[in-house]
Amino acid sequence: MTMQLPLAGIDAMPSHAHRLFFALYPDADAAAHIERVARHLRSTHRLRGSPLAVERFHVTLHFLGDYLWVPRNIVAAADEAAATVVTPPFEVSFDRASSFGRSRNLPFVLRASDDVAALMSFHGTLGTAMTKAGLGRYVNAVYTPHVTLLYDDRCVAEEPVDAIAWTVREFVLIDSLIGQGRHVPLARWPLRDLGPC
Asked: How far is CA 4 from the centre of its chain?
């Protein structure tokens, strides 16, 4: 089925309107801490970019593509994959800040210097489930966990910050409305353990 687009104003329409990805969100206390750190670092380094809205701070797990509309088949496959993931809650901690990348409009991010084995393991487990559900083309073995604070053209070298930690208790499928600065949760899955046999 072909999507019919209106002719008037079509040149001004974005090429993609929806960005889908799996993510982890900090709890309320951690999100507030992230916001304080973002504002402090922005001032310290005289950055011009505005911090993201507190409800948009997240850790991306796997990117599922950009689309003109939300594809039901991708969402269904994502749900199929996520439903099979069995992982107990785990801790994450971010204690470094730096620019990420080498172009303009650089993400300024939080990163982890210590062991992130539980997060890396969860990323891999979800990637395996995605592959089994037919989403293997979206699984990237190279993964650098981070929380984007803001975007700016200045490059800031890595520096330590007070550790920001929280317990991950769920993961979320997000529809990011491109150009609108909004995240719409499409589905959530609690982390769980099978428990004793």
From this structure: 31
Tokens for 104?
Answer: 């303009």
| 173 neighbors 186 (Cβ within 8 angstroms) | yes
Q: Could you give the CA distance from residue 11 to residue 51 in angstroms, rounded to a whole number?
A: 30
Q: What is the per-residue burial (b if ≥16 Cβ within 10 Å, else e) of 76-106? A: ebbeebbeebebeebebbbebbbbbeeeeeb
Amino acid 4: pLDDT: 33
Q: Return phi, psi of residue 56, to 5°.
A: -100, -5
**CA angle 95-110-179, nearest 5°?**
165
DSSP secondary structure code for residue 53 in this structure: P
Distance between CA 189 and CA 173 in Å, rounded?
9
Distance in angstroms (rounded) separating the CA atoms of residues 173 and 19: 10
What the block records as the tokens of 64 is: 């599922």
Cα(54)–Cα(32) distance, rounded to whole angstroms? Answer: 7
pLDDT tens for 114-168 read: 778 999 999 999 999 999 999 999 998 899 999 999 999 999 999 999 999 999 9
- CA distances 136 to 106, 124, 127, 141, Å, are 28, 12, 7, 11
| Of the candidates 32, 40, 23, 26, the residue with the CA atom closest to the CA atom of residue 78 | 23
Residue 129 per-residue DSSP state: H
**Is the Cβ–Cβ distance between 53 and 111 less than 8 Å?**
no
